[in-house]
Design brief:
Helices cover 0% and strands 46% of the residues. The protein has 96 residues and is mainly beta. It is elongated.
Length: 96
């Protein structure tokens, strides 16, 4: 008989990853793109081909970072916010 009568007694869960508050606006944008962040982070704008088109470091001295979309082509971009503990990705559309 042995293991035929094992009964589970609980469910193991992984600890939740820490999260940060990230807001990207306006979306869609045809000018400045604002990224509001709640803690120190590296912020990247990445095109759909995976190329980093803009980069900024947020060190807590303002409300966030801004990117000027005038030099970007129309399309969809990923805004990647990297902190020491987590990474958050938001999408923004640039219109011309």
């Amino acid at each position: 008989m042995g293991n035929d009568y094992l009964v589970p007694t609980g469910i193991a869960t992984a600890p939740a990853a820490p999260s940060i508050d990230v807001k990207v606006y306006p979306n869609p944008s045809n000018g400045m793109i604002n990224v509001a962040i709640s803690e120190e982070a590296e912020v990247l704008m990445i095109d759909m081909m995976g190329k980093v088109v803009a980069r900024a470091n947020y060190v807590g001295n303002a409300n966030g970072v801004q990117f000027n979309s005038d030099f970007l082509s129309a399309g969809v971009y990923n805004v990647v916010v990297k902190t020491e503990n987590t990474t958050v990705t938001e999408r923004v559309t640039v219109i011309k």
